[in-house]
Amino acid sequence: MLVFPNAKLNLGLYVTGVRPDGFRNLESVFVPLPWCDALEVLPAADHAESTLTLTGIPIPGDPTTNLCYRAYELLRADFNLPPVRQHLHKVVPIGAGLGGGSADAAFALRALSELFELKLTSETLIGYARRLGSDCAFFVANKPVFAYEKGDVFEDISLDLTGTACKVVYPGLHISTAEAYARVQPQPPRHDLRSALSQPLETWRETVSNDFEDALTPTYPVLREIKQQLYAAGAAYASLSGSGSAVYGLFPGLELPPNLALPAEYLVWDGRL
Ligand SMILES: C[C@@](CO)(OP(=O)(O)O)[C@H](O)COP(=O)(O)OP(=O)(O)OC[C@H]1O[C@@H](n2ccc(N)nc2=O)[C@H](O)[C@@H]1O
Ligand SMILES: Nc1ncnc2c1ncn2[C@@H]1O[C@H](COP(=O)(O)OP(=O)(O)O)[C@@H](O)[C@H]1O
């Protein structure tokens, strides 16, 4: 079975408090971004070892620590699954705030459920996904939502950005999520993101913000520079996604986003949501 785990963007993000488990409560709106990895999951021979092979962008750590492998291990423990062969071709940058690893985990859970006819409901899959990471649960339903608590509890929103031209720029900084959270002082949300995002996109610049951006920009001024370039090129809204370091711009009314003069080593995704 071949699946294409997509990334996500955060439209606004407030870190609102520290939880008893040490994690932060947040409020954000998550939307799918069609920048995708490719993951193949196949049954292996009966007595073979389960394997995960990797191509594309290198992922640090032993393959057994990879979220695709950990997703398999979770289900194997509960459903006595036979061995599998997984292959991941990594395209979405790592540590970018695009949720690429979380998507791989959620898509692996969904693929395994289908391959072995486990008939897991979305609710059950979300339960497994939460055990692999706060962001993973979003990728089970994979549609725009207002997310709160650890970013793993959702409320439906009516937000349709389908077809909006978008550019995502990854400057090659791997910012660890834990390090980014440690730099943010939690505070109450400044706006209700649900109502702010229901207003015309041109108004978001004044109302929709990401707490990680203010916390990280003094150390990584390149984030501000990319955002300024996106606005100068005509973006109606630009922001850091999640804990960075990817910065995106939305260009409604355009067929495709304009080209930017960027260093050759930056990774750029251009397309429509
Ligand atoms: C910031 C966000 C916003 O969407 O995305 P990314 O920028 O990583 O894509 C998420 O909250 C990232 O979720 P995820 O990447 O799954 O994080 P996890 O693996 O669960 O946790 C990594 C570390 O981040 C911190 N963490 C994460 C989530 C949360 N609600 N509070 C936290 O304090 C903890 O220090 C934890 O050890
Ligand atoms: N399949 C995977 N793809 C990406 N990163 C993975 C994967 N499995 C485990 N990881 C680990 O997860 C961390 C980053 O995950 P990722 O979702 O790409 O970033 P972010 O949380 O910024 O969106 C890295 O430290 C990486 O080593």
UniProtKB/TrEMBL annotation:
Belongs to the GHMP kinase family. IspE subfamily. Keywords: ATP-binding, Isoprene biosynthesis, Kinase, Nucleotide-binding, Transferase. It is an enzyme of class 2 (transferase). InterPro entries: GHMP_kinase_C_dom, GHMP_kinase_C_sf, GHMP_kinase_N_dom, IspE, Ribosomal_Su5_D2-typ_SF, Ribsml_uS5_D2-typ_fold_subgr. Residues 201-253 form the GHMP kinase C-terminal domain. Its EC number is 2.7.1.148. The keyword Ribonucleoprotein does not apply. It catalyses: 4-CDP-2-C-methyl-D-erythritol + ATP = 4-CDP-2-C-methyl-D-erythritol 2-phosphate + ADP + H(+). Catalyzes the phosphorylation of the position 2 hydroxy group of 4-diphosphocytidyl-2C-methyl-D-erythritol. The active site is at residues 8, 135. This is 4-diphosphocytidyl-2-C-methyl-D-erythritol kinase. It comes from the Bacteria. Pfam families: GHMP_kinases_C (PF08544), GHMP_kinases_N (PF00288). Residues 66-140 form the GHMP kinase N-terminal domain. Pathway: Isoprenoid biosynthesis; isopentenyl diphosphate biosynthesis via DXP pathway; isopentenyl diphosphate from 1-deoxy-D-xylulose 5-phosphate: step 3/6. ATP binds at residues 93-103. One of its GO terms (molecular function) is 4-(cytidine 5'-diphospho)-2-C-methyl-D-erythritol kinase activity.
